[in-house]
Amino acid sequence: xxxxxxxxxxxxxxxxxxxxxxxxxxxxxxxxxxxxxxxxxxxxxxxxxxxxxxxxxxxxxxxxxxxxxxxxxxxxxxxxxxxxxxxxxxxxxxxxxxxxxxxxxxxxxxxxxxxxxxxxxxxxxxxxxxxxxxxxxxxxxxxxxxxxxxxxxxxxxxxxxxxxxxxxxxxxxxxxxxxxxxxxxxxxxxxxxxxxxxxxxxxxxxxxxxxxxxxxxxxxxxxxxxxxxxxxxxxxxxxxxxxxxxxxxxxxxxxxxxxxxxxxxxxxxxxxxxxxxxxxxxxxxxxxxxxxxxxxxxxxxxxxxxxxxxxxxxxxxxxxxxxxxxxxxxxxxxxxxxxxxxxxxxxxxxxxxxxxxxxxxxxxxxxxxxxxxxxxxxxxxxxxxxxxxxxxxxxxxxxxxxxxxxxxxxxxxxxxxxxxxxxxxxxxxxxxxxxxxxxxxxxxxxxxxxxxxxxxxxxxxxxxxxxxxxxxxxxxxxxxxxxxxxxxxxxxxxxxxxxxx
Length: 501
What we know:
501 residues, alpha/beta, FAD/NAD(P)-binding domain, 3 domains, 15 helices, 20 strands
């Protein structure tokens, strides 16, 4: 068996966490190999071509470029320039027939909340506290790459890196968003519906389960700079890929990892490509960007036991129903690119427990994404239980069509302009589809839901007990979202620099 020894670090999976770690390492002179099983890189932060259109992998927003945020750090450290255009306002929420505009300007946003939900003084107090917590969380996160701490020295480093004046924020690790809402007198049914659905798309849990420490960032992400990538998110991934290649690294698509074997010189990684040809690579460092649920199937012995334990602790996570729709441009000129649509109270999407759907649209005139001018692509998503969809068996196709029909009818009734739009292409994906697209076990996407029962110290850390084996992505700290997984990649880089001098 011929083994390739050309690389200093092997990264499994080309999601944004692995790409970020790869770029940071390549910038420091490491020769990096990224292995991706799918036909295109990017994982859940990617795009795909279908019938003349480019669709995003999901309905996705993009933040993290403001000072003290992860993508700002990535560009600053590497010199990378990710193509993007700022959009403002970034989003509208539609609830009970009313439009709520998610303004970036914080004063304007508070005024909008007061207009819709009333109680201006309480709204101002609540959102000022959320901004205060969120700003500090972003700042502190970049200062503490060895979190959660795993060694005595890392606990000591926490004390050195952080100001005692910032300790106040830790109380919110033990208080739910709902508790803070009640404190400010904002636990009205309509405001709670709004907050619950906002948190569902950012923290994967509602206000009663999400600690305010994380929920504050999830609620205020539209109050930071939001961006659109012309041509789709795959262009963001491609810009990082080209950077790594220019530094001597490589990214192989259609080459899935089957086995990770530990030996005295690090790890041998066995792969299988679409032609069923096996390859073997040897490196002292391996970074897994795949979910912890997948890792037990790639490993053996005590490493497999470790990942079985980690997966067992976090065995529940959401999947998604997604629709890709291409239509002519019948939408109002002032309609934001991102729209969250609440269903009528008590209504849910069929075969899910979801109370809302999220729509991300291509920018008017983005000729890269549309086969002709005057067309728009829409990516629509809603939460769904993977277990429920895997249990449908003979009724799967019928259920899939029923969900598609329901969502299209909802868009006709609630998304301005859609009722006048002519549909050219439409296709629907379920958790079953997602597993075949991005190879995540049971089609789980979005990471592990936030939970009051989940201690900060119980998060899966980026450094495993096995020397040279590291983790990044949305099932490791700090979790989901493009900024979160980017930060996980930065944290992996910091640990490698510390451990492999």
